[in-house]
Amino acid sequence: MRLLSILPALCSLVVALGTQARAQDSAEPARVVFVCEHGSVKSLVAMEYFNRSAKARGVPYRAVARGTAPEPTVPKAVRDGLRSDGFDVSAFEPRKFEGSDVDRASLIVSFDQDIASIVGAQTRYLKWDDLLRVLTDYARGKDEIVRHVEALIDELAGGTSR
């Protein structure tokens, strides 16, 4: 009899906990915005590697790529290089970096672009300037970006090792 009197309370508790768990699972991850000139080379490479590594390591961040002067398509060398690395960017469309990107970002990383006036003091901002050119040597340029991305993920994960 006593069990029957607490059963409705237990059911309510289970429903409340399930709802809370679903709300936490559906929470949007923090956003990192990578910005290069065309939004289809360095920022795209950084985005793809960042998202794959952050997901694998359980780091609650998601990256996007933007350009200050976006090109209409991804250059063939980058598309082919990323494909050989296991990424399909055939449907990727470069997008312009805008103020709304800053509003929704936890972190912005630029490659050789002066966007400080757009970012202001609204969010954390890193500059990864003077890295190797990806279009000149995809493998070396990509490797340098990946080293920076992995160090960033280490920091965002609180320094936990891979």
Detailed description of the structure:
The protein has a four-stranded parallel beta sheet, covered by helices on one side. Strand 1 (30-36), helix 2 and strand 2 (61-67) form a beta-alpha-beta unit. The protein is globular, with a radius of gyration of 20 Å. With 162 residues, it is α/β, with parallel strands linked by helices. It has six helices and four strands.
Keywords, separated by commas or semicolons:
6 helices; 162 residues; 4 strands; alpha/beta
List the helices and strands and how they pair.
Layout: H1 2-25, E1 30-36, H2 42-57, E2 61-67, H3 76-84, H4 99-103, E3 107-110, H5 116-119, E4 124-127, H6 138-156
Parallel strand pairs: 1-2, 1-3, 3-4
Summarize the biggest pleated sheet.
Answer: 4 strands, parallel
Q: Rg, please? A: 20 Å
How much of the residues is beta strand, in percent?
5-15%
Q: What is the number of helical segments per DSSP (H or I, 4+ residues)?
A: 6
Arrangement of strands in the largest sheet:
2-1-3-4
Number of strands: 4
Let me know the average pLDDT: 87
**Basic shape:** globular
| Termini separation | 53 Å
Please outline what is shown here.
By secondary structure, the protein is of the alpha/beta class. The chain has helices spanning 2-25, 42-57, 76-84, 99-103, 116-119, 138-156, and strands at residues 30-36, 61-67, 107-110, 124-127. Helices cover 48% and strands 14% of the residues.
